[in-house]
Design a protein that fits this description.
single chain; 204 residues; mainly alpha; two-stranded antiparallel ribbon; 2 strands; rod-shaped
Length: 204
């Protein structure tokens, strides 16, 4: 598990990692077999080269033996080439097999990833944000109400109102709320910003 900004993140790919580990183990075994075949083929080809040279100077009896040996060596080359093909086919089948297993593993892991719902984070911090703003609003309104009666006593006076008719309009709850410049449009957080965050890119 990993802790990111106070959030505990468990391993979200346990089944995938298990499938990949098994695939790698079987793939290594097949690759090792392939390399052994290469080594064996190189050794036989070297023997064939020596056999060809020896037959050029051999007497009849030796040529009979060397010819028989040459045929056996060529036969072994054919067998190894066949085993190369079988090995490659098995590697292909292995990939096809594990591709399906991997798809199933990823499907099973969707239930793990669904635990980390961005909407829950947005709702939580939206609630924190609104409650903090509401706290500012309540405090400023409370202070406004404490002095409003005396201020209004002066501003609503007929003689004051006649001299300064707009003065009372400048002293309402509208002007004594927390400031807010609506530069966000209809949404405080855009979909693009959320998508960027989902891919690991934080706020600028």
């Amino acid at each position: 598990m990993e802790i990111t900004n106070g959030v505990i993140i468990e391993d979200i790919f346990p089944y995938t990692k298990e499938v990949l580990a098994n695939f790698k183990a079987e793939q290594i075994a097949l690759q090792h077999e392939y390399e052994e075949l290469e080594t064996e083929l190189a050794a036989i080809q070297e023997k064939i080269a020596v056999n060809v040279l020896d037959r050029e100077t051999a007497n009849l009896s030796d040529r009979i033996y060397l010819t028989t040996q040459h045929k056996e060596l060529n036969y072994n080359v054919e067998v190894i080439n066949l085993m190369f093909e079988e090995n490659q086919q098995r590697q292909t089948q292995l990939k096809l097999q594990y591709a399906m297993l991997l798809r199933e593993a990823i499907r099973k892991e969707t239930t793990i990833r669904s635990k980390y719902d961005v909407n829950k984070i947005i709702d939580r911090y939206k609630s924190i944000m609104l409650n903090e703003i509401a706290g500012l609003g309540r405090e400023m309104l409370s202070q406004y109400r404490e002095i409003a009666p005396e201020v209004n006593y002066l501003f609503d006076d007929s003689e004051v109102h006649e001299m300064y008719p707009r003065l009372s309009q400048a002293y309402t709850t509208e002007y004594f709320r927390p400031g807010f410049e609506n530069k966000y449009g209809k949404s405080i957080i855009s979909r693009d910003e959320i998508d960027n965050a989902r891919y690991g890119k934080g706020a600028n």
